[in-house]
Amino acid sequence: MSERHQLGELLQELKERSGRSYTALASRTGLSRSSVHRYCQGLTVPASFGTVERIARVCGAGQEELDSLYEAWARADAAAGVGERDEREEGEQGAEGEQGAEGEVAAPQQPVHVRKLSRFGLPGRLPRPRLRTILVAALVIVTALVSTLTLTLDPFSGSDPDPAPGGSGKGSGGPRGGGTSGQRVEGPYWALAPKPLDREFFGVTMNTNTGLMPDFDVSSVRLWESETRWAQVEPEKGEFDWGILERSVRGAERKRLPVLFVFGGTPGWAAPGGPKTPYSDDSRAAPPDDLADWDRFVEKVATRYRSRIGAYELWDHVGATSHYDGNMATLAKMVRRAAAIIKRADPEAKVACPSFGNLWEPAGRELLEEFVRTGAYEFCDVAALKLHPRRADGPPEEIIELAAKAEGIFRKYSEGWRMWNTGPGAEIDDGAKLSDRRANDYAVRFYLVGLYSRKSFVDRMYFYAWGGRNIPLVVQPVGGPPTEAGRRIGRLHGWLAGRRITSCGQGRGVGLPDGVYECVFRRDRDRDPGTAGPWFAVRWTQHGRASGELGEEARLLRRMDGSSERVRPGERVAYGETPVLVEYRA
């Protein structure tokens, strides 16, 4: 991990602990929102430690944490080149004195720590009391001059309204690629002509071998934790046991749920020296010793289930050695061979490249990038990725940020790949359990942030998992009724069925209070002719509550508990962590 990423992680941890959005930190530190985001993500190193300290103190950092931050900043600063330092100084000067969220110029707090004095032509480091006296005075004078110049030269400069993926605050449309001040352009995070959702967008991963399916509305199922791994279907070479897979596919057919089958879990006979997986069968995390065995199994499945299984994922959870312990070159060969076999057997079937996980960690993203460079994605229809919050009980909105990180990797080599989110992996199994209220909210918002992430090419969301009890968020145990969280997933599915999505955004950029997310939909008149209310919006917050006035033609408010009420334009509505739907006439 690079020095700047280590500094970024320390700042990001403080931000998350404080519960403040990037916009809130910007308004309280006098920095631009985009600058705060870059520092917390480890994309840029601040030119002075005073900037780091201002962010840290707003987040409630103590003296020991400030000391740790100083050491991390000093290492990152030392690793930065001279040209990069000059560029960073110019960027920070442009950010200082920008207007905060309320239009007031925020005065920077005086720093206690400062950077190495070699930057000022002084030898070494002075003792802290003397250092503080000299440099605080200098910083106050310089900041005042910069603020005055900024306001004089650009009286219309304001805080950057462009949202960082996953953050709370204003909608997008702010300056991109330029300085920290520029046009204030309001608008959504993304907008398109009304477009139907992928018909299989509301997916779940099955955690049962019973063939039972969800009792609440979803639109597709993924077979992995369903005892349908390669080692279970072909326990001995050339001997196949189709019982569980057949039962699962028939169960999905009865519910008219399209199936995504996941290849993985090499039988022990095909890789006797490979490490065992965490499952109770004799499956191995290694690729088969002879890829011809892989070819034959792929052909058997794709031929038997032609037109019955609509999509195939070519491995689960690459990035965890417990699931795949081979190299990327071999995996790329497996992908190329399997894709060709599947397309010959069933030309209509979709092929998803292996599901990569551990993407919050630089090592996980580096592994994904290594696989991208093999060119294997050219043989797949979509990319499968494990997009999830940092922690098992973390807010779903963090998925937006992770999807953007993945998109950035793909864009280095192509125009971007459509993504299917296959849910979390074992790396976030930290034993956390969600309360009923948070489970109800997070289950629904999992799918909503998938819609928000359409800008990053996310097309499907497979909730992990259906049927299990020993997971942080239970939607329905096998043999039992759906939990309220599961019922609310079904209710959201009903809200959006037959609708076309047009945009997603947040905060003042879309005319809403700061921190309020929104996705907007139009009715599909071909499927829903003559209905009142040509559009509606689903709104929610990541943290806390915010209230705002409803716009023109607002007519109905629907809640996740199934209740609804008539509303009028101009009426104030409170938005919270539980999503609501607002219908409009025009």
TrEMBL record:
PROSITE patterns: HTH_CROC1 (PS50943). Residues 11-66 form the HTH cro/C1-type domain. InterPro entries: Cro/C1-type_HTH, GH, Glycosyl_Hydrolase_39, Lambda_DNA-bd_dom_sf. SUPFAM superfamilies: (Trans)glycosidases, lambda repressor-like DNA-binding domains. SMART domains: HTH_XRE. Residues 89-101 have a biased composition (Acidic residues). It holds the Pfam family HTH_31. Residues 166-181 have a biased composition (Gly residues). Residues 80-107, 156-187 are annotated as: Disordered. PANTHER family: ALPHA-L-IDURONIDASE (PTHR12631), BETA-XYLOSIDASE-LIKE PROTEIN-RELATED (PTHR12631:SF10). This is HTH cro/C1-type domain-containing protein.
